[in-house]
């Protein structure tokens, strides 16, 4: 295996040179555990830890290595290594963690995000748009996989295909079934050598089963769908990278019940570019596209030029992203205030000769 087979290219080589890391070999993070990483390069695989200095200098969880990252390492022998530096990321995909105002990085240096839904469970065009928004925000090309098509009739499949293509006419679309193996050859052909593809979807959508089919063996453990609330029992708890025989690279992810919008405003604007272009013609610069007179977006809905469902999804995602931004700013403001309080307290303790100073 050559390092290029792992996705290494001139972007990362240039970054390594700029950071003066020429004396360190590089490897790609292929599995992430708590505080422990499995990394891989042309010489093999290593279990690696980051240095204490990295932990100390990290400002947030985003500063830690994640699956997909390229890192500089020191080979300690016997399959052990130390990670010194995370190379700059070409692309990144992240979301707001459910119920928390925290960002969770799903993967990095990804070429395409494969948004997967099953026809029998969580089929939703609006959910697809959530995946596309976070992919677009990370400069990642999205694609649609509609899975388990063996569970519906050809007429139902045709209806869903028309819905998807009418709503997402410029997004690649692949219908699949692991039972009948429909669409699997098309999916294999879609995945190119040396490129990285991240599967996104809720538990039970069939991500792991599809990857097993692509690998030609049951590497990832799966279970049947739970009858309780029709939720999938999914074994995947860690993100992991797999390498196909054709040279393609795929990442399996734990199921996502919620796809929360983080700081993805630019991704929403990029994906809904039709609405973004219309917004430039609005009468008011700060138009919310909800009630203002002279709103070009509302006019397009009335005239039938703009799909109303697409508009409603856009407004919902924008509101969610703005809410995250507001709460994040408030959190940072409180953190700054607390930092000033600690600094003042220390100065006062030192001034009055406290025993700890």
Key features of this structure:
10 helices; Rossmann fold; 35% helix; globular; 357 residues; alpha/beta; OB fold (Dihydrolipoamide Acetyltransferase, E2P); 5-stranded mixed barrel
> H/E element string?
HEEEHEEEEEHEHEHEHEEEEHHHH
Number of helices: 10
Give the low-pLDDT segments: 223-236
Q: Measured on Cα atoms, how large is the radius of gyration? A: 23 Å
User: What would you say the CATH architecture of the domain at 92-252 is?
Assistant: 3-Layer(aba) Sandwich
Give a count of the beta strands, DSSP E runs of length 2 or more: 15
* Proportion of residues in extended strands: 15-25%
Averaged pLDDT: 83
Structural class: alpha/beta
- Strand order of the main beta sheet, please? 10-9-8-11-15-14
CATH superfamily heading of the domain at 92-252: P-loop containing nucleotide triphosphate hydrolases
Q: What is the class of the domain at 92-252 in the CATH system?
A: Alpha Beta
Largest sheet: 6 strands, mixed
How far apart are the termini?
57 Å
Helix and strand layout, with pairings?
Blueprint: H1 10-18, E1 26-32, E2 37-41, E3 44-50, H2 52-57, E4 70-77, E5 80-86, E6 92-96, E7 103-108, E8 112-118, H3 125-137, E9 141-147, H4 154-167, E10 172-175, H5 184-190, E11 196-200, H6 207-215, E12 222-225, E13 232-234, E14 240-243, E15 249-252, H7 265-271, H8 273-279, H9 296-303, H10 308-351
Parallel strand pairs: 3-5, 8-9, 8-11, 9-10, 11-15
Antiparallel strand pairs: 1-2, 1-4, 2-3, 4-5, 6-7, 12-13, 14-15
Helix pairs in contact: 3-7, 7-8
């Amino acid at each position: 295996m050559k390092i290029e087979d792992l996705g290494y290219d001139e972007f990362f080589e240039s970054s390594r040179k700029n950071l003066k890391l020429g004396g360190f070999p590089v490897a790609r993070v292929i599995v992430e555990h708590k505080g422990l990483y499995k990394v891989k390069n042309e010489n093999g695989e290593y279990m690696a830890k980051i240095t204490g200095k990295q932990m100390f200098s990290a400002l947030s969880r985003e500063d830690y290595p994640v699956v997909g990252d390229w890192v500089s390492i020191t080979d300690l022998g016997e399959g052990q290594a130390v990670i010194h530096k995370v190379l700059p990321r070409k692309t990144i995909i992240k979301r707001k963690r459910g119920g928390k105002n925290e960002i969770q990085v799903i993967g990095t240096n990804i070429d395409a995000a494969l948004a997967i839904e099953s026809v029998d469970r969580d089929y939703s065009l609006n959910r697809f748009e959530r995946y596309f928004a976070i992919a677009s925000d990370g400069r990642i090309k999205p694609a649609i996989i509609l899975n388990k098509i063996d569970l519906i009739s050809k007429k139902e499949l045709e209806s869903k295909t028309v819905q998807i293509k009418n709503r997402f006419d410029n997004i690649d679309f692949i219908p699949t079934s692991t039972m009948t193996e429909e669409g699997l050859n098309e999916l294999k052909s879609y995945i190119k050598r040396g490129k990285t593809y991240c599967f996104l979807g809720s538990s039970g959508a069939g991500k792991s089963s599809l990857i097993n089919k692509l690998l030609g063996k049951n590497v990832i453990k799966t279970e049947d769908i739970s009858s309780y609330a029709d939720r999938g029992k999914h074994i995947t708890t860690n993100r992991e990278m797999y390498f196909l025989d054709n040279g393609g690279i795929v990442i399996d992810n734990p199921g996502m019940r919620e796809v929360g919008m983080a700081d993805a405003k630019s991704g929403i604007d990029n994906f809904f570019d039709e609405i973004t272009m219309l917004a430039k013609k609005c009468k008011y610069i700060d138009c919310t596209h909800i009630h203002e007179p002279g709103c070009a977006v509302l006019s397009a809905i009335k005239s039938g030029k703009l799909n109303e469902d697409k508009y409603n999804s856009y407004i919902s995602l924008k509101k969610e992203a703005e809410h995250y931004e507001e709460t994040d700013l408030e959190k940072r403001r409180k953190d700054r205030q607390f930092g000033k309080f600690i600094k003042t307290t220390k100065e006062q303790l030192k001034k009055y000769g406290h025993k700890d100073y």
